[in-house]
Amino acid sequence: MPLFKTIKPNKHTTILVWKIDESFDALFSALVLNERSLQRINSMKSELHQRGFLSVRHLLKEAGYSDADLFYTSDGKPHLKDGKRISITHSYNFSGIIIGDSSVGIDIEKNRDKILRIASKFVDNENEFLVEEKLIEQLTVIWGAKESLYKIHPDGGLLFKQHLPIEPFKLSDGQTKGWIKKDNYYENYNLFFEQIEGFTLVYAMN
User: Fold this and answer.
1) Statement: the pTM of the whole predicted model exceeds 0.70
2) Contact, 55 vs 17, CB < 8 A?
3) What value does the mean pLDDT take over residues 44-73?
4) Packing angle, helices 35-43 and 47-62, rounded to 10
């Protein structure tokens, strides 16, 4: 299907979400890819990952960019040639990008029971405001928030449990704040989240 959702939180930032219903061939045939992207596609063993990769290129196209406008630095972070900030995510049959003038991060995750088993690895003070009702969704927001912040930090080396505290929220709030606290790096970001067909979308921005 075409573009699933567009969010414009302010005049400088755009979030685009794609629901991946198309076949690999349908996604591939509508794109012009550079040699590096073709190599990456061919190296992927999973068609699910290939379709996720291609759907992100369709999102770029929707935003007025081509595959050639996107490049990655040695740390694996994506960048746009015009200097705007970009963050990318995909999970199962959804993908998303956020483009802005300042630091941005995005994550989309399927709500799964698995997160209950790994919560102790990334949840610290956030335990104080968790409630039993819709616990999976709350934990997925926290995970997605920390993923989004992790993508913003320029140097890596972050521990989800220690360096990325999330302020208290209720699911009905749709937003909260999160921090990157590591060494001399001490910044907070606005976090926004929503549920989409059994997935949690989270994005971070100043």
Assistant:
1) yes
2) no
3) 95
4) 150
**Sequence-ordered alpha helix ranges (H) in the chain:** 24-29, 35-43, 47-62, 114-118, 135-152, 160-163
Q: Which CATH architecture has domain 3-102?
A: Alpha-Beta Complex (3.90)
Q: Tally the C-alpha atoms within 13 A of residue 140's C-alpha that lie toward its C-beta.
A: 23
Cα–Cα distance measured from residue 51 to residue 44, given in angstroms and rounded to the nearest whole number? 10
Closest C-alpha to 104, from 17, 191, 182 = 191
Domain residue ranges of the chain, discontinuous segments joined by +: 3-102, 107-205
Judge whether residue 206 has pLDDT over 90: no
At 1 the pLDDT is 56
The predicted model gives 84-89 an average pLDDT of: 98
Share of the chain above pLDDT 70, in %: 100
Query: How would you classify the pairing of strands 78-80 and 70-72?
Result: antiparallel
153 by DSSP, 3-state: which?
coil
pLDDT over threshold 80, residue 155? no
> Where do we find the tokens 């414009």?
8
Task: Determine the Cα–Cα distance for residues 94 and 112; give it in Å rounded to an integer.
Answer: 15
Report whether pLDDT(101) > 70: yes
H helices present in 63-202, as ranges: 114-118, 135-152, 160-163
Q: What is the largest CA-CA distance in the chain?
A: 50
